[in-house]
């Protein structure tokens, strides 16, 4: 899923013809320089180089374990033949907080050292170029931006012993002070979720120096709980050791048998403090309660000296305050409301019709079909949620509905619904297996395995088309879910799925409710064909989404593919007639398969150009006239000017977003916004955008729509509008936030 994080190739600097010199280069937020410690190199003798990063104020990059989110800094070397590079020497990182998430990384300046060994057979006086390509994610309080650059260094061989470069000696010496000095000899035990480190003071920590603070940076995820600070257990002065208690992670599978990372120790030497970092790589021994080392004067010390305090006050104000119980309730209610969304209603209608057809059958049969449908829904929610959480754990900026940001998924969903619609028009019959998927299985076939599989697949399809919709209650619950441990997060998504399938479980369990439905008859055929048109409308909407994600030629190829699918389906329908001979049926099936494959080939023909388009080109024109492209920097600038700002977080695959945009674009709302001097900004999430994903998370959300309004008072917190808008709601909200005495801006 590399498409979710795209690294932009930045300007490559030119190395000076002078040996051992490289200029700073890179984007505005991060500058990189490759530096050599010695003036020359000697064949066969290792030499040190440094990657010197200068990071803009209020921005940071990530350590090899970025923490709860982020992407670690990566270095790819391109060296002359025979040169070998050792592992990157990481200085110990700092800790920073973003709302309820903890990250590990660097601010200001950071120096990464590497040892390079040249071959012994190099010619004297020869010049060689070393290249290092760096990739990073740099973040501020408001946004994150992926970046990359390539930096170069020229080195010259000489037979004499190399001399240190005086101008870089301090940089290298200070860098080595921040690299963990050696592997500390420690003992680590675990009991009841507590991981305890026992460290002898013989590890270069004098017994006379009091330990005033500690912090542990784990190299692996899901071993300890990042959010809980270590507890320093101060033993008696005669004790030649100190203890550090860490809270183990609550994540499923977080039972690592090894503790690996960096322990940073703060000691007091007179009036001065001292910081030492130690490599920890030790097995974890499971022990009983009595084996946990008792200690005196246990107290918790916040490692404030190690923290990069980037707590986002605005984000914290939007945290979900109801706790896990209320989030579960919201998820269940949100799942039920999904059934009324236009993207789900057509598929659900067929499920209800299948229950109507099974009227008169045994109650146990309808319950089994209801359970299979529910299983399809819940497993699909688990699959989508697991994929989203896994991608976020690896630093990918994704949110709810992320699969619809990928053109390939939109194509697959549109193709399935298009072929489904052709079947509803009677162009062909799915047959026993697929007919049950559409809820059209004959009552006498309902007991067959294909009927159960059809109910299961209808649940899968319902979930697939439900993800573009974010109704009331759903946005808050999903946004809260992604901040929780995996088990609790999946529990919320389980309640979401249960809420969605609850009405159908109710119908399956109590068939008496079906007496309120019309009895089976010719009307069902008409209803089926009517739903075919509804599905075609859904297909047109998906084609519109696809065109926004790609380009005109890709849309033409998609239409050509659908035409080929229609021809194939028509031939398949003709060949399925019961009176046709077996030979003609085989010919028809092969021909139909040919047209289906031709359709697939036509659709994927321009696949390489699918990611070349930009939805931003439409903003400021047509339906988006008068709107600006969302930018955190632009928002900050407008707030300093005292300008009110309305941000519309939207996506073309979000149907509620489109309905709300009609409201925001209405004359009366537009007039009110103009009178109050409100700057309108749109954050288009149709295609994946890490900046928008990060901005959504600032407000405790992981999906669209989201409507954020900043008043003219910089000290005033932004407010969030409801997910379903009307003209009166928008106008009343603006009036309540903005003082009626304010002077309107004149554009």
UniProtKB/TrEMBL annotation:
<keyword id="KW-0201">Cytochrome c-type biogenesis</keyword>
<dbReference type="Pfam" id="PF11412">
    <property type="entry name" value="DsbD_N"/>
</dbReference>
<keyword id="KW-1133">Transmembrane helix</keyword>
<keyword id="KW-0472">Membrane</keyword>
<dbReference type="Pfam" id="PF13899">
    <property type="entry name" value="Thioredoxin_7"/>
</dbReference>
<feature type="transmembrane region" description="Helical">
    <location>
        <begin position="371"/>
        <end position="395"/>
    </location>
</feature>
<dbReference type="InterPro" id="IPR036249">
    <property type="entry name" value="Thioredoxin-like_sf"/>
</dbReference>
<dbReference type="GO" id="GO:0017004">
    <property type="term" value="P:cytochrome complex assembly"/>
</dbReference>
<feature type="transmembrane region" description="Helical">
    <location>
        <begin position="553"/>
        <end position="573"/>
    </location>
</feature>
<feature type="domain" description="Cytochrome C biogenesis protein transmembrane">
    <location>
        <begin position="327"/>
        <end position="543"/>
    </location>
</feature>
<dbReference type="InterPro" id="IPR028250">
    <property type="entry name" value="DsbDN"/>
</dbReference>
<feature type="transmembrane region" description="Helical">
    <location>
        <begin position="530"/>
        <end position="547"/>
    </location>
</feature>
<dbReference type="GO" id="GO:0015035">
    <property type="term" value="F:protein-disulfide reductase activity"/>
</dbReference>
<feature type="transmembrane region" description="Helical">
    <location>
        <begin position="585"/>
        <end position="605"/>
    </location>
</feature>
<dbReference type="GO" id="GO:0045454">
    <property type="term" value="P:cell redox homeostasis"/>
</dbReference>
<dbReference type="InterPro" id="IPR035671">
    <property type="entry name" value="DsbD_gamma"/>
</dbReference>
<feature type="transmembrane region" description="Helical">
    <location>
        <begin position="486"/>
        <end position="510"/>
    </location>
</feature>
<dbReference type="GO" id="GO:0016020">
    <property type="term" value="C:membrane"/>
</dbReference>
<feature type="domain" description="Thiol:disulfide interchange protein DsbD N-terminal">
    <location>
        <begin position="31"/>
        <end position="153"/>
    </location>
</feature>
<protein>
    <submittedName>
        <fullName>Putative thiol-disulfide interchange protein</fullName>
    </submittedName>
</protein>
<feature type="transmembrane region" description="Helical">
    <location>
        <begin position="324"/>
        <end position="350"/>
    </location>
</feature>
<dbReference type="InterPro" id="IPR003834">
    <property type="entry name" value="Cyt_c_assmbl_TM_dom"/>
</dbReference>
<feature type="transmembrane region" description="Helical">
    <location>
        <begin position="449"/>
        <end position="474"/>
    </location>
</feature>
<keyword id="KW-0812">Transmembrane</keyword>
<feature type="transmembrane region" description="Helical">
    <location>
        <begin position="407"/>
        <end position="428"/>
    </location>
</feature>
<dbReference type="Pfam" id="PF02683">
    <property type="entry name" value="DsbD_TM"/>
</dbReference>
<keyword id="KW-0732">Signal</keyword>
<feature type="signal peptide">
    <location>
        <begin position="1"/>
        <end position="22"/>
    </location>
</feature>
């Amino acid at each position: 899923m590399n498409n979710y994080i795209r690294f932009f190739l930045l300007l490559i600097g030119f190395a000076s013809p002078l040996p051992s010199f490289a200029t700073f280069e890179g984007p505005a937020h991060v500058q990189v320089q490759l530096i050599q410690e010695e003036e020359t190199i000697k064949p066969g003798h290792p030499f040190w180089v440094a990657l010197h990063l200068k990071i803009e104020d209020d921005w940071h990059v990530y350590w090899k374990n970025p923490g709860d989110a982020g992407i670690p800094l990566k270095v790819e070397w391109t060296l002359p033949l025979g040169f070998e590079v050792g592992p990157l020497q990481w200085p110990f990182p700092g800790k920073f907080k973003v709302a309820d998430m903890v990250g590990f990384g660097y601010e200001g300046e950071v120096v990464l050292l590497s040892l390079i060994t040249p071959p012994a057979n190099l010619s004297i006086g020869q010049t060689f170029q070393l290249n290092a390509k760096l990739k990073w994610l740099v973040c501020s309080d408001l946004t994150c931006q992926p970046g990359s650059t390539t930096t170069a260094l020229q080195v010259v061989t000489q037979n004499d012993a190399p001399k240190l470069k005086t101008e870089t000696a301090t940089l290298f010496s200070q860098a080595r002070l921040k690299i963990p000095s050696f592997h500390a000899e420690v003992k680590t035990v675990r009991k009841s979720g507590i991981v305890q480190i026992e460290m002898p003071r013989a590890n270069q920590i004098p017994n006379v120096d009091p330990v005033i603070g500690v912090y542990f940076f784990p190299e692996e995820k899901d071993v300890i709980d990042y959010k809980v600070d270590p507890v320093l257990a101060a033993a008696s002065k005669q004790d030649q050791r100190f203890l550090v208690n860490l809270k183990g992670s609550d994540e499923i599978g977080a039972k690592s048998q090894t503790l690996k990372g960096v322990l940073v120790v703060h000691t007091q030497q007179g009036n001065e403090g001292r910081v030492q970092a130690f490599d920890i790589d030790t097995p974890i021994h499971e022990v009983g309660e009595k084996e946990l080392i008792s200690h005196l004067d246990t107290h918790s010390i916040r490692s404030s000296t190690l923290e990069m305090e980037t707590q986002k006050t605005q984000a914290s104000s939007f945290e979900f305050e109801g706790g896990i119980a209320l989030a579960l309730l919201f998820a269940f209610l949100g799942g039920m409301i999904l059934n009324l969304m236009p993207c789900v209603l057509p598929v659900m209608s067929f499920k209800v019709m299948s229950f109507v057809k099974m009227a008169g059958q045994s109650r146990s049969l309808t319950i089994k079909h209801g359970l299979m449908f529910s299983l399809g829904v819940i497993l699909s929610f688990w699959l989508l949620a697991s994929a989203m959480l896994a991608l976020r754990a690896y630093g990918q900026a994704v949110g709810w509905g992320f699969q619809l940001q990928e053109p390939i998924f939109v194509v697959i969903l549109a193709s399935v619904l298009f072929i489904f619609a052709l079947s509803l028009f009677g162009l062909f019959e799915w047959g026993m297996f697929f007919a049950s998927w559409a809820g059209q299985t004959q009552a006498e076939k309902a007991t067959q395995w294909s009927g159960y599989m059809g109910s299961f697949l209808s649940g899968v399809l319902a979930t697939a088309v439900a993800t573009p919709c974010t109704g009331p209650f759903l946005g808050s619950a999903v946004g809260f879910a992604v901040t929780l441990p995996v088990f609790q997060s999946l529990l919320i998504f389980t309640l979401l799925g249960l809420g969605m399938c609850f009405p159908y479980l109710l119908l399956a369990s109590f068939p008496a409710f079906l007496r309120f439905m019309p009895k089976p008859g010719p009307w069902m055929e008409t209803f089926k064909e009517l739903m075919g048109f509804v599905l075609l409308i859904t297909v047109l909407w998906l084609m519109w989404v696809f065109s926004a994600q790609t380009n005109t030629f890709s849309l033409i190829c998609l239409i050509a593919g659908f035409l080929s699918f229609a021809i194939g389906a028509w031939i398949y329908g003709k060949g399925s007639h019961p009176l046709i001979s077996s030979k003609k049926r085989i010919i028809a099936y092969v021909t139909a398969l040919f047209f289906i494959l031709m359709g697939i080939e036509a659709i994927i023909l321009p696949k390489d150009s699918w990611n070349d388009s930009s939805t931003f080109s439409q903003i400021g024109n047509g339906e988006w006239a008068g709107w600006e492209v969302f930018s955190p920097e632009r928002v900050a600038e407008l707030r300093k000017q005292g300008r009110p700002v309305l941000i519309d977080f939207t996506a073309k695959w979000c149907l509620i977003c489109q309905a709300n945009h009609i409201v925001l674009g209405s004359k009366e709302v537009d007039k009110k916004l103009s009178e109050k001097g409100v700057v309108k900004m749109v954050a288009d999430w149709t295609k994946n955008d890490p900046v928008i994903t990060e901005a959504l998370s600032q407000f405790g959300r992981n999906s669209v729509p989201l409507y954020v309004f900043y008043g003219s008072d910089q000290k005033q917190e932004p407010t969030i509008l409801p997910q379903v808008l009307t003209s009166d709601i928008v106008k009343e909200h603006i009036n309540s936030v903005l003082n009626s005495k304010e002077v309107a801006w004149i554009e």
